[in-house]
Structures are given as C-alpha cells and as structure tokens.
Design goal:
This protein has 550 residues and is mostly helical. The protein has two domains: 328 residues, no CATH class; 132 residues, 2-Layer Sandwich (Transcription Regulator spoIIAA). The protein contains 21 helices and eight strands. The strands form two sheets. It has a six-stranded mixed beta sheet with strand order 4-3-5-6-7-8. Helix 3 packs antiparallel against helix 9. The longest helix has 30 residues. The protein starts with 11 loop residues before the first helix and ends in a 5-residue tail after the last helix.
C-alpha cells in the first residue's frame, strides 16, 4: 500500500479524474501493443485489469505505471513467431507462460535483492535499443496501414518488398483511413497532451465502420471481440517447451528491470518520494504472475504510461486503480463496438507508438557529445532492427558492461600538487609534476582489479623511472580505490618492491578502512610500514618536508 497511502481526502477527486483520463489514453494504446505482441485485442485490456491493480497494492512506487509495453511486446512477437501462429490459443498460452517465468525471475530478484543489476544497462544502450525497437515496430505496421499483404520477413526485406509493392498493391481506402487516424492524433497532440487523440481517432474509425460498413470497401476490421472477465487458469504448455520460453522471459526480465527501475527512480526524484527497487521488483513479479494466470502477456513499468498519468494530474496509485475500474466496465459492457474497429486504424496507432520510441534527439546528443557511446547505441539499434529484439537485448547488456569496464579499465589517473594557497589540485600524469622536489603523489582513479593492474604497474614504474629530478618518495593516493582484488594485491606488492629497489620510499595516503583491512591481510601494510601510511596528501607533504636533508 506504499504506492497509495498516505492519501489526503482532498486529493481523491483529482486522482479519480486523472484515472479516467488515463484510461481514455491507455485503452487504444494497449490495443496497439496487442498488435505488436501478436495477441488477441482483448488481452491488451487484460494487461490493465489485474496486473495494474496488483502492482498498486504491492509495489512501493507511487508513480510507476505497470502495463503492456512496446519493448517487451516486440520481444514476445519476435521470438514466438517461430513457435506458433499469432493470436492462436497455442500462441496465447506461450505468451502467458513467458509472463509467469518473468514473474518468477522478478520475485527471485526481489528476494535476493539484486535490483542494482538495472544499473548495468546504461542510458546509452537503452536509447539505441528503444530506437531500434521503434523503427522495427513502425516498419512492421506499414503493410497494415496500406492494405498490402504482409509476410513474416525480416525488417530489411519488409522495406524492400513494401517499396516494390507501393505502385500496384496499395489499397487506397485503407491508406486514406490510416492517414486520417494519424492526422487526428497529431492534431490532438498539438492542441494539448490531455486530449485523448488516439481514443478520438479509434472511436471515430469504429463509428465510421459501423455507419458506412467499411468492410464492404475492402477495409479489414477486427471482427468479434470476446467480452467479460478473463478466465483464471494456468497456461497449458508442455514441459519440453519451457527452456525455450525461459530464454524469452530472461530477455523480458532484463528490459523490465532496466526500464522500471529507471522510471521509478526518475519520478521519485522529481517528487522527493522514497521508493524501494526490490519492493517494486516484487510488485512487478506479482503483476506478471497475475498477467500469466489471466491469459495475457508480460507487463512492464512503462515510462510512457507513467508520463501520461503525471500529465493527467495523477500522483498516487489510486489513479491506476481508477483506470482498472474503467477497464472493468469496458470489458463487461462495451466490447461489442470493438468488433467494428478497422485494423488499419490500430496499425496507425501502433505506427505512431513506434515513431515515438525513436529517440532522434538522444541519438543526436550522443553523436555530438559522446561519439564512442553513439557508436554503442547505433550498434544496439542495428542489432534490434536487422537481427532480433532478443539478440538486441543481449548486445545491450554486453555493451553496457563493456562500457563500464572501459571506464574502470582506463580510469583518469593524475598527479597531485599543492597550490600556492596550500590546497591540493590534480595535474595530468604526462606532465610529471612533483608535489615537492623528490616527492610525487599519484592518484589512481578507480578500484584496483585484475583488468587494470597492468596499467597501474606501467604508470607507476614509468613515473618513478622517468622522474626529473629523481624521486625520494612516491605516494599512492588511494582516495578513489574502494576495493582491491587478489590479482591486483599481488601486483601492488611487486610494484612496491620494484619502487624500493630503485631507492625510492613508497608511501600511501587516504586509504579507506575497508581497503586498509585488505592491505593488512595481504601484507601490503607491513611492506609499506605503518609510519608511511598517511591520512591525507597534505600530511604526506609535511612528513616529507620534515625529513633530514630534504
């Protein structure tokens, strides 16, 4: 109940209004996500019904909105298409089982408190990943928007086939309807973010279909949509198929972990609220379990939906519970009109969802400010577009870890010198400046571990060997070293020994308590000597100046 309480009485009307507004925006959106996922339209409403209610009660975030998401929907569709035909009972069963497997992973992550893993997916690769997903989704809807027969080809082949089919195969009434839907949504966005443009466009298309029998003009419509509540049951999936589905669930789990944690964190900071990422993981796990037993697909903490609720004025999970109540009413009383919905209208809504995910501004910013990271984002996007979403997730994780290792493998190491006023400042390592004649203070910019110990060794020994004038003391400033593994501890002992052989005294400063315990245990403190381990660089300079003959 942390996401709902405390709740002031005066706040309730605003939350209810926001919930109704959000429902108007979210219903056509989740119907679009079912198209991406290859699921029956009604299952999109199911992603709101139980999962959103469960997270409202068991999550900790007051702002995170849980529901269908384009990224996880694309993962499901891209992976399941080889196992079953979309929208068939077998396909729905597989999707529900993926939700249950993702739920198990999320609950385990909560119990073992590994929510921090989300930090390993950098914003850079998320920009590239979501951009790739957006392009893939948008291209995948072009056939439905134009009435051109669609085959299950890769993205590149889809573009080539679609380009060659435009002159002869476009169904012009279908294309006109699609462009009208897009135009209505874009005009509504221009007027104001609270205007449910997608709902107006979809409702208008359904009304036109009912009044003018658009199917008689060759425009495809959805057909009968079952109403009522979902049947609660365990998906009928053979045990032999679980391993393959588990791989898909892992990909969904990674996306859920990254997107949900990032969104919760951003909105908690915006409102100065507290939240617990591991409690949110439990809520997300239970929400996906509810999705699995109610016959729908994976749900995620959605940044798009969270922003919708914020824009509508919602500030607690009571907004989401109101939306659940609205969807419940729709399922019980208003599913028949959905049967008149033209497929092209839904394709147009999904097309705009895909374009919204393409982060042109983010990619341009990366290209200008961080060219190397732009390359990482581009590789991730291309992998998603031309290979698969699942492989794109794997590439995103690997590239994020590589980016982290790159920064820690090549940390910014500097030399420290005193200023005329007695403060300490950093200078580039290559300049070889000494804190005092014969004293060099070297600050290592990262934890010391097996991947960067050779760089540490080279820099220290080069600095000692090439120092001018010759050194008497060499100080390692350990302010940025929070951990030292076995390999680097052994290397550090060899470095100290080599420095001593060159007739230079090795000293250390700013050694944290944890690192000092490790140095004591590894015998490093004994090699250096307790009288040569100082609290600060200033203490080192004063002790060096007090030596006879200095």
């Amino acid at each position: 109940m942390e996401g709902i309480l405390p709740l002031g009485r005066a706040q309730v009307p605003a939350e209810i209004i926001a919930g109704v507004t959000f429902a108007a925006l979210a219903i056509p959106e989740v119907m679009g996500y079912t198209r991406i996922a290859g699921m029956p339209v009604v299952t999109g409403l199911y992603t709101i019904l139980l999962p959103m209610a469960v997270f409202a009660f068991f999550g900790s975030s007051r702002h995170l909105v849980v529901g269908a998401d384009s990224a996880t929907a694309a993962i499901i569709a891209g992976s399941l298409i080889a196992m079953a035909a979309p929208r068939t009972p077998e396909y729905v069963g597989y999707a529900a089982m993926i939700a249950l497997l993702a739920a198990a992973l999320l609950v385990a992550a909560s119990l073992f408190r590994i929510g921090f893993v989300a930090d390993f997916l950098s914003r850079t690769v998320l920009i590239g990943f979501l951009t790739g997903v957006g392009i893939q989704i948008a291209i995948g809807q072009t056939a439905g928007m134009t009435g051109i027969p669609q085959d299950q080809y890769g993205t590149l082949l889809q573009v080539i086939i679609f380009s060659g089919s435009i002159p002869c195969c476009v169904h012009w009434p279908t294309l006109l309807l699609s462009l009208t839907v897009i135009g209505i949504i874009l005009v509504a966005r221009k007027i104001g973010t609270r205007i449910p443009g997608a709902l107006i466009a979809v409702a208008g298309a359904m009304l036109a279909s009912f009044l003018f029998d658009l199917s008689s003009y060759g425009i495809a419509i959805l057909g009968p949509v079952p109403g009522g509540l979902p049947v609660i049951s365990f998906p009928d999936v053979a045990l032999s198929e679980i391993p393959e589905l588990t791989g898909i669930a892992v990909a969904c789990f990674v996306v859920i972990l990254a997107q949900s944690a990032a969104t919760s964190r951003a909105y908690a900071l915006k409102f100065s609220d507290s939240y617990d990422e591991n409690t949110d993981l439990l809520g997300l796990g239970l929400a996906n379990a509810a999705a699995g037993i109610s016959g729908t697909f994976v749900v995620n903490g959605s940044p798009t939906k969270t922003e919708m609720v914020y824009s509508a004025g919602g500030r607690t999970q009571l907004t989401q519970l109101t939306t659940v109540a609205v969807v419940l009413a729709v399922l019980v009383f208003i599913t028949r009109p959905l049967s008149y919905l033209p497929s092209a209208a839904l394709a147009a809504v999904v097309f705009l969802i895909g374009l919204h995910l393409v982060d042109i501004r983010g990619m341009a910013s990366l290209r200008t400010r961080r060219p190397v990271e732009f390359g990482v984002a581009l590789i991730t996007a291309f992998t998603v577009i031309f290979v698969s979403v699942t492989i794109g997730i794997a590439v995103a994780v690997v590239l994020s870890v590589m980016a982290h290792l790159r920064h820690s493998y090549r940390p910014l190491n500097t030399l420290l010198i005193p200023t005329p006023r007695g403060a300490i400042k950093s200078t580039p390592l290559g300049e070889g400046q000494q804190a005092a004649e014969g004293l060099m203070v070297y600050r290592f910019g990262s934890n010391l571990y097996f991947a960067n110990e050779s760089r540490f060794t080279t820099e220290v020994l080069d600095a000692v060997t090439n120092a001018s004038p010759a050194l008497k003391w060499f100080c390692l400033s350990a302010a940025n070293i929070g951990d030292v593994d076995y390999t680097s501890a052994e290397t550090l002992k060899l470095v100290i020994s080599q420095v001593h052989k060159r007739g230079v005294t090795f000293v250390m400063s700013e050694v944290g308590d944890h690192v000092r315990d490790e140095f004591d245990r590894d015998g490093i403190s004994a090699m250096v000597g307790d009288d040569h381990i100082f609290e600060s660089v200033q203490d080192v300079i004063e002790a060096y100046g007090a030596q006879d003959g200095v």
